[in-house]
Structures are given as structure tokens and as C-alpha cells.
Amino acid sequence: MKWIDFEKPNTIDEAIKLLVDSNGLAKPLAGGTDLIVQLRVGDPRVNASQVIDVKGIPELNELSYSPESGLTIGAAVELYKIYNDDNVKKYYPAIIDSASLIGGTQIQGRASLGGNLCNAAPSGDGIPNLIAHGAIVTLAGPNGTRKAKVEDICIGPRKTSIDSDELLLSINLPINPSGFGASYLRFIPRNEMDIAVAAAGVSVTIESGKFTNARISLASVAPTPIFVKEAGDSLVGKAVSPEAIQEAAILAKNAASPISDMRGTAEYRKHLCEVLTQRALDIAINRAQEN
Amino acid sequence: MTTADYERNQVLSTQNDYKVIGTRPIRHDGADKVTGRAIYGADFDAAGLLHGKILRSPHSHAKIISIDTTKAAALNGIKAIVTAADFPEVSNTKVDLGEDVTELKWLRDNILASNKALYAGHAIAAVAASNPHVAEEAIKLIDVTYEILDPVLTTQEAMADNASILHDSLETVELGHNTGVVSNIAKHFQHIKGDIKKGFDEADLVLEREYNTKTVHQGYIEPHSGTALWSPDGRLHIWCSTQGSFVVRDSVAKLLDMPISNIRVTPTEIGGGFGGKIPIYVEPVAALLSKKTGTPVKIVMTRRETFEGSGPTPGSQIKVKIGVKNDGTITAAHAWMAMEAGAYPGSPVGAAAQCVFSTYDIENVLIDGYDVVVNKPKTAAYRAPGAPNAAFGVEQALNEIAEKLDMDPIELRLKNVAVEGTRRADGPVFGKIGAKEVLEAMRDHAHYQTAKQTGHGRGIAIGFWFNIGFDSACNISVNKDGSINLTEGSTDIGGSRTSIAMHAAEVLGIPVENVRPSIVDTDTIGYTGVTGGSRTTFATGWAAYEAAQEVKSKCIERASTIWDVNKDDLHMEDGVISSKSDPELKMTFKELANQMSETGGGISGSAAVNPSGAGGSFAGNIVDVSVDPDTGKVTIERFTVVQDAGKAIHPSYVEGQMQGGSAQGIGWALNEEYFMNDSGSMSNTSLLDYRMPTALDLPMIDTVIVEVANPGHPFGVRGVGEANIIPPTPAIANAVYDATNKRIQELPLSPGAVLSAE
Amino acid sequence: MAERKTHVQTTINNEPIDFLCEPRQSLLECLRDVIGLTGTKEGCNDGNCGACTVNMDGRVVTSCLVLGVEAEGASIETIEGVADGSNLHPLQVSFLENAALQCGICTPGFIISAKALLEQNSDPSEHEIRFWLANNLCRCTGYDKIVRAVQDAAKKMQTA
User: Is B220 on the interface with C (CB under 8 A)?
Assistant: First the structure.
């Protein structure tokens, strides 16, 4: 690895100052499970001579729930904390679908959903799940803080709408209404450790047997994870039925524009979109009906 | 099926009257290995150690026009730089690589490229620095000018007319004669038995199929490493993780034009090899760097370098044509096999030819083998090299035939099984073998006898590996406390030092805990061949047996001196020397050992063997799979492996070999392959995308050890390391067919391939 | 900025350890090359094989993906700290009794991982064991005897 400098700020303001002073050559470090690999192989998309460890900043380590504001996950909170958290298990169980399958046990001891989002891989396992939950992020920069929808963060493969002098602080999942259910399902050739070949994160709200809301998001089948608004919208107002599910799954598939690479062909990935969306919806619906 | 229905690990033992053989002692190196104390290649340290890093070609085929190292040399901290120009000039000779032979010029060229880069990952130059990060940054400053050429990446591409040629000096040897034609085909040979045309004419049914396999890697978790110290007295000391310290010594001696007596190779503990750590890669480079710096230089490969810069096993094209009578008798069999050798000649197509039809007694056989160079890393042995490729074809073809004849696939095989006296198509006549016993054990196993679950598919297959003998040496010296020191030269990849110690313990009638085995360097033990070829327990165990016999006869002699009786009156059983005629005269081995000095001096024994009676081993699988109809993903639901071990010295480690080879075969079947991109380099150079099975991908692997004693070994041992990797790929393909009606003739059976198969 | 090493203070196997390292050196490199604890192994250097597993502040991590400088103030357990003096841990004993290692290179990582599992779940099912250990690759054993060794140790530790 070429030389890097290392800083560990204690506050958001200190971190922002370091980012500003670095002129775009500093990268925030949370779990490091993507960044350290990229630095080591000299990934040209990561042009960094300084690494800023943000795990000492309290706001980025927050994991809290309130009936008013929902679930707040600090940007650096490790996955193992998320799936072991009682509030997550009770109120946002579908988030565990992603948190428990990124990498393996050891990766989950370090990696964070915030890092997964900022890495902006087309295959990011946390991202469709957050989109399905309607999650909102809070960012801090030299001009103050701002909020953004998760689906607006990834703008290209490994590119985000976050400025180089901005820091992701936290991700907020709003309170879910009763009748809500969500799930994240991905396809990998092995049973763990792989990057998703295709993936679907979905959520539904069901009242009296009808969909009142649905959100469907896909990963690994476009330059970024995508929010397929029309697929979720197609369910609203309809009764729960296999036909409605299939129609939504096909709309999701049609929105996908996958490439062929060593992880799968474009046709195979498109096919999987339909299969995974359908299966994920089945699970989400089951969870909604139990809720 | 419940666990109570059958035993998960069975030993069908024929000979049980041993005291030590067949027991399951704790391995002697166990405490070191579970506490992290064992020293593997990369753990080795020495005063003044520098770190070496190798620059590798990004191009799969290119002329090297120039190498400019000035910028790298100027970098602060760089102590030495080497290229192929630093090799001494030597005339071309043959080099013994432990299991095969190559030309020195090929070996040299693979270690550091001379005029051409022949694969992406080909070593071009190397630097040494005290900081490995500095060394890594330095190699990026070496300027190499390349003229890029078209690569060939498969046997089809390489054998085509007008294919891009790798070596201007490589002329095809056709059936033993040099044709003078420059091509990528190094060699075409044949084995002929009987009359193939007559055989096919007699058949009621002829099946002809083509199969293709991809490049796969042995996947050992420990990357290659080696440290070299070139001493001012002209001696070179190498510490490395290797399957054959004597092969390292011999190869390095030829490469560096030194007498072997000037080289000492100390093998460290080794983190897996499976054949891939028989060739040398980094040791000569470290030696050349050390010669310049005068300090020890250590080179450790990264995982990417391990994929691109060591020796995977070939991709291949296998055409099979089999003729049978309606009653299932095989009348003719033809295999046409082209295997990728990688950048230099020497694929295992010859070994594949020795195995392809050898499980069966067939009157008329023709085998065509083609050794083909391609722009990929030079292939190395991978556990029964070549045979899994061939079996993927033959064992599927036989199952297709069984289905057409409405015969049980195991019955079809039993009908044609090779027995003692059967002549193989490549020449040798079988001595006592256990093919029939393995098939019967498969047929009679609870797995096969139990109906499969709804939605599952079941497949079987069987494979053969001939196993080798070669040289092994062993020295034993007796300690005063009745223990023995045993030194041998077989690096221990899987617990073999204990199995070898068990041979000596059995002969002397002492507990195996009283044997202190050590694996020593090339200065300290006689010539010992590689830990590979399923030879270690067989040959080095035999050397230990012979050395112990010498100790035993010396004990008897010593006792006869002490008691002043005729030594023919004495015998030694169960660690006790006693008189046949006088029951009062007895002493234990320990008591004798205790008085060695006073009664004539120390007692020791030694042996050097080169046994020729290596009995082959057969291994079979029964596998149940489920296939997700919407994704094509194959899940291994149940797996049973049956293998003939001759005599399982330490059954736990025999089971371990069977389970390990099975797991590798499963990975080979389901997901492992080198993804080659358009420019000819490997895309998936990490363990993320080179997908080996994890603990979550496999079920328990049930084992049955069959023991058909090998008359060519004192305890009946047959090597077991290799044959078990042969049946999994066809067994799984057969199971997938049973589940889906899709016959897949290309590896791997990855989900997309299974889904899109017709 | 001039290139200087960082002084790190950490606790390893219950002992306070100070070391110097460059920020680009991983914790794995620091353990092996700086401190001299070579029991933790490198298999891939990108988090995919688990041979470098250590326990850091109560959870298992791949030390190749932790920077040495991030170990400041942390409490780390490596394979060298698993045995109690010269008494092997029940997992170490059961790995040997069950022949759950062949070449042994993956064994330190597996023992650290399995130990953490048993500390949090004293009676894991076969599936739970396999899921927990999916980040630890073994190429020699096919995992069968490793799973049995963990089950065996779990039983022994429950009755202890």
C-alpha cells in the first residue's frame, strides 16, 4: 500500500475540518471492510492519502429507537450490533436480513450499513433494504447538515451524491405503520460470503387484505441499486394475490439493466429479478400479516 | 433417515490384530498447531531479513522488449533488483520435478521471464527491501516495454490452424516422433489395447459425448512462501513451505548451476499443497536477491499471485465414445483428451490416460492424449491430476448408458469392473485391487439403500488413481528412556508424521506416544520424494517400518549378548524381548534401552526405500442434491464417499483425506473456475469470486473405508490422498440430471449454467 | 507531512503491549511482523478466508481489515492467548481429538471464531455452527470434523 496518514477526530466538526483541509484526498473510515481492500489494491476510484477514523464520534455510533422518530443507525454502527439489538428485532426485523448476510461473522464485526451505502457498490446489500424502508440519511458538511433519501445517494457505480467534504452521520428508518412487512432477498452461488448476483429489498403495508403501500428496490442489476417506484405503486389498492405479486415482479424485472460479468449474465440476472422480487414480496406479506 | 440408522464413518476392516495400526492417537504436532506455535513458511524470521516482491506481467501474451529498473533502484530502501538476466548461463537439461520431468529452460523461464511474457501473472523482475510496502511500491516503478500478442486460452483456440504460437521452438511430438512442426501441441500420444473398430462393431449401443472443464486451483489457504540466505561460503540455505524439499534442492541446483551439496532446504510446516506446492516459484528469486544483498530474503505470494503465478490444474476437452452390448458389457472405449499445460509443456494428460478407463475391464480401448500450451500459468499437479477431468466425462457417459439399458448404474459398473489380472490400456496389469469392493460397499450403504427425498436427485461415480512409490528415507535412534527419535523427510500436510510413527511403533511394540517424529532438512536425511502422489504413508511409512525392523533385530542381538544366548532363540513381541525356550528370560524394550551405553553403545536403525508395489486406490461417491428450479442453484443434501485404503493406519486422517478431496470435488463441480477476460487475464483473483465451499455450503460427509490389503506393502497400505477427488464432479452431474433431466457436460455446474441448460 | 510511525498502546491476550507501526500496516501485519505473534495467519488479505481472525473487543474480526493504528485502546485475543497457561482450551483439545485439522493453517482462525460462538451460544445447532463459521475457509477437511469438534467442545464445556 502507498503511504497513508491517519487521523481520529472526536467530534463531527473536527472530522469536517479534516475533510475540508484535505482537498478531497481524505476518506472517512468506519469498518474498513471495503476501504482498506481498495487502498491496498490501489483502486483508482479511491484517491486517498489520508484516512479519517470516524468511530470515535458519538453521533456515528448511535443506535436508538423512539416511537416518534423511528430507528436511528449511526453511520459507523457495526452490523453485529444491529442484528443483536432488541429494538431492531422487534420493530425492524427485515433490516436483519441484510445485516446478517453481508460477508460473514467477522466482516459483520466491523462493517456498517453507513459504509455499505457510501461505498455505493451496485450490489450493496444494505441499500435496497434501506430504500424499501423509506430511510433518510443525515449528512454534515462545512455549511451545516442536510437530509437526503437513501435512493438519491448512489448516482453511479461507486459514486455518491455526497460531497468530498461531507460526512454521513446517520440513517433514519421512520416508524412503520401497522400492517407493515419488509424483506431483503439476494441470490448468491454459495450460501454466504458472496457478492449478490441480484437482490430485491421490498416492503408492503397491508390493510384489510389490500396493499396500501409498497416499495421495491433492486441491487446488482443496474449501475446503482434502484428504486423501482412503478413496481411498488402497481400493488397499491390491489388485494393481495399471486397475480398482483407477479405483475409487480415483472415491472421490477423490466426496470433492471444488468450487465454480464463473472458473477452472472445479464439474462440470468434479469430472470432472477422476477424470482427474487416475487419471493421477497411473499416473505414481506407474511410478515405484514403477522404484524 | 436418522443418525441412528447407520454409522457415519465406517471402517470395513479385514485385519484387526494390530496394536497401533488402526488406532486414532493424537497427532504429534497437535499442540503446536492448535496454539499457533507451528512455524509455516511466512512465519519464518531471521536477523536482517529483507522482503522480496515480484513484478508480474499484466499481459497474457507479449514480447518483452525492455526492462528498465533505474527508477525502482533509486527508491529509498530498495536493496537489490533481479531479472532473468541474473540467472547463470546453463545449457538446457532435464529437471526432475518430483512427479514429472521438464526442460530446464522452461523452468527457468517460468521463474523469471526472459524474452516473452506467456501469461498474465508471469514473473518479470523482483526487488528486495526491508519494508514490504516499499518493495510493493518499487515494483510499480519498473518500466517494462511489451509488444502485445494475441493469446490463446483454451485447447480449442490453441490447436486451431493459425493459432497464435507461444514457443517458436516447440515442435509437436506425434506418437513419439518429432514432426518438426511448430505448434502449441507439445505432444500427441496414444494407448492402444485390442481392436477399437472391432469393439465398436460388436456393440449394440454406442454413446459419444464431449465434455469441457475449466481451469481450477488447488486453493490451499496458505500462499507460497520461501526465504533464502546466500552465505559468503557459497552455501545456500532455503526455508520454504513445500511438498518436496529435495525437489526444491535439485531444481534450484540446476537453475543456479550449483552442486546440490551446496544447498540446504529446511521445510517449514506447510499450509496445504494438494500438488500445487511441488513446483518451485519464489525460492530461486529469493536466492538471487540474497546473493546480491548478503542477507536472508523472504518472498510471500499474495492470494492474487497464488492464482496468477503458481500452477492451477488444466481446463480440458474430453471426448468419450463407449460401446456396450445390451447386457451391459462394455466392448469398446475411446477417449480423446486435450489438456491445457499452461505456458509450458507438461499437462497431466498422461496421468489422465492411466486412469480414464482403468476402473473397467475393457477389451478394446483407444486413448488419444494431447498436451497443449496456452497463455495461462503453467499447470501443476492437483490431487490425482488429469483424472477428475477424464472421469467427469466417462462416469457421466456410463450413467447415460445405464439409463438407456435400464440398468442400475452400480450394477453396470460391477459387470465391467477391473479385477486382479485385468490389463489397463496404458499397459500395467492390476495386482490385487478393491474396485469391486468399493462398488459393493456403495451399493450396500444405507445411503444408496434409502429412498431419496422428494425433489432430490441422486448420482454415483467411481474413480481410480494409481498412486506412486519413489524414494523415502528414515532414521531411528533409541533413547535411554525407551522412546525413539524418528527423523524423516516427508513434509507433513495432513498428519502423516503420526502415521509414519505408527509404522515404527507397531514394529517395535511400543506406544506411538513414545515415538518422536521430526521432519528434517535435506542435510539431515536421505533423499525423500515429494509428499504427494499418495505416497507418503505408503513409502515413508515403509521406510520407518524397515528402520524399525533394523532396530528390532539389533535389540535382539543386544539381548543375546546381555544374556549370552543364541539370538535365534529370542524374539521381540509387543515391546518385550524374550527367549522362546526360557520363560524367565525377558526384558522390555525400555529396560534394554536403559542399559544401551553399558552393553555396547547406542542402538539405531535406518532405511532408504524405493518401493514399487504401490497399490492403486478406488474411490466412489453417492450424492443427493436438490436443485432450485427458478435459480438453478444446486445444494448438496447428502454425500457419501467410499474408498479403498488397503489398510487405514490412522482412520481419522484417512477419513480426513476422503472428506477433503470430496469437498474440493464439490467446489470443482459447483462453482470453481478461472474467469478469463477478453485480454486473457483472470478476473476473479480473490477468494471472494473464486468460490470455494464454505462450512455453510456442505453437509456432513459420510465415509466408508474399505480395506483390500495391498500385497505390496507390509501393512497393506494404499495411498488415499488422491482418488477421492475424482468421483465428485461426475457424481454431482449425474445427481443433477436425476433431479432435473438436464445432462450438463461442462464444468462448473454453476446456477446460471444449470438454469439455462436444456 | 514527514512519514513517521505511530505509537500504539493496546492489550493483547491480557497483556499491555506497545508497538510502532505505519498507518498502512494492518493489525495482522503488526501482530505477525512487529510484535512477533505469528499464530494468526494471512490467507487472502481481503477478509475472505478468516485465517487472520482475532477477537477484538469481544467480537471476531478479520485482522487483515483492521489497521494497526485502530487497535489503540483495544483488547485483542489471538490464538496464542486461548490456552490457559499450558492447559489447552476444550476447543483445542476437541480439535485434536476429532482430527479437525490436517495442514493446520486455518486452525487458529477457526478456534478463535468457534470460541466466540460458544461464549455467546453454549449449545449451537449444526446449522448455527456452519453459519457462524462461514467466514473461515478450510481446504483440507471439508468441515465435517471441524463441526464435530465444535459440537464436542460445546458438550464438554456445558458439563464443566
Answer: yes
Which stretches within B35-190 are classed as H helix? 70-74, 104-111, 132-139, 155-159
CATH of A58-173, one of 3.10.129.10, 2.60.40.2230, 3.10.20.600, 3.30.465.10: 3.30.465.10
How many beta carbons lie within 10 A of that of residue A177, not counting itself?
Answer: 13
Residue B751 and residue B632: Cα distance in Å, rounded? Answer: 4
Provide the edge-to-edge strand list for the sheet that holds A63-66: A63-66, A70-74, A167-173, A136-141, A144-149
The three cell numbers of residue A188 are 448468491
Contacts of C34 in chain B (CB under 8 A): none
**Is residue B71 classed as helix, strand or coil in its secondary structure?**
helix
Residue with cell 481492500: A37
Alpha-carbon span B724 to B618, nearest angstrom: 8
Q: How many CB atoms lie within 10 A of CB A66?
A: 10
Across the interface, of C24, C46, C134, the residue whose CB is closest to A1 is: C24
Q: What is the number of alpha carbons within 13 Å of residue B748 lying toward its C-beta?
A: 27
Distance CA A199, CA A280 (A): 9
Domain range summary for chain A, segments of one domain joined by +? 5-53, 58-173, 180-290
Evaluate whether A118 touches A162 at the Cβ level (below 8 Å): yes
User: Which residue, B514, B600, B512, is CA-closest to B555?
Assistant: B600
Is the preceding peptide bond at B711 cis, omega within 30 degrees of 0? Answer: no
Residue in B137, B691, B696 nearest the CB of A189? B691
Check for a shared fold between C6-81 and C90-159: no
Nearest to B208 by CA among B362, B324, B314: B324
Residue pLDDT, tens place only, B427-438: 999 999 999 999
* Chains in touch with C (≥3 Cβ pairs < 8 A): A, B
What is the residue whose three cell numbers read 504413508?
B537
- Angle at which helices A266-290 and A242-255 pack, to 10 degrees? 140
> In the CATH scheme, what architecture does the domain C6-81 have?
Roll (3.10)
Kindly indicate the confidence band of residue B2, based on its pLDDT and cuts at 50, 70 and 90: very low
Q: Which residue has the cell 524374550?
A: B578
Compare all CA atoms of chain A with the CA of C56 and give the residue at the minimum distance: A109
pLDDT band at B4 (very low <50, low <70, confident <90, very high): low
C30 pLDDT higher than 60: yes
Largest CA distance in chain B: 86
The answer to whether A115 faces chain B, any CB pair under 8 Å, is no
Instruction: Decide if A199 contacts A276 (C-beta within 8 A).
Output: yes
Residue identified by cell 530461486 is: B284
Contacts of B445 (CB under 8 A, 6+ apart): B6, B622, B640, B642, B704
CA distance A212 to chain B (A): 29
Query: What CATH number labels A180-290?
Result: 3.30.390.50
Asked whether the bond before B748 is cis by omega within 30 degrees of 0, the reply is yes
In chain C, what are the domain boundaries? 6-81, 90-159
- At residue C2, the pLDDT reads 65
> What phi, psi does B513 have (nearest 5°)?
-65, -20
Alpha carbons B253 and B248: distance in angstroms, whole number: 8
Measure the CA angle with vertex B494, ends B493 and B499; round to 5°: 115
Q: What percent of chain A shows pLDDT beyond 90?
A: 99
* Topology given in CATH for the domain delimited by C90-159: DNA polymerase; domain 1 (1.10.150)
Q: Using CA atoms in the order B537, B543, B545, B547, what is the torsion angle rounded to 10 degrees? A: -150
Query: For A200-241, what is each residue's pLDDT tens digit?
Result: 999 999 999 999 999 999 999 999 999 999 999 999 999 999
B contact residues 357-396, partner C, Cβ 8 Å cutoff? none
Measured from the Cβ of residue A233, the count of other Cβ atoms closer than 10 Å reads 16
Domain A5-53 matching CATH 3.30.43: the answer reads yes
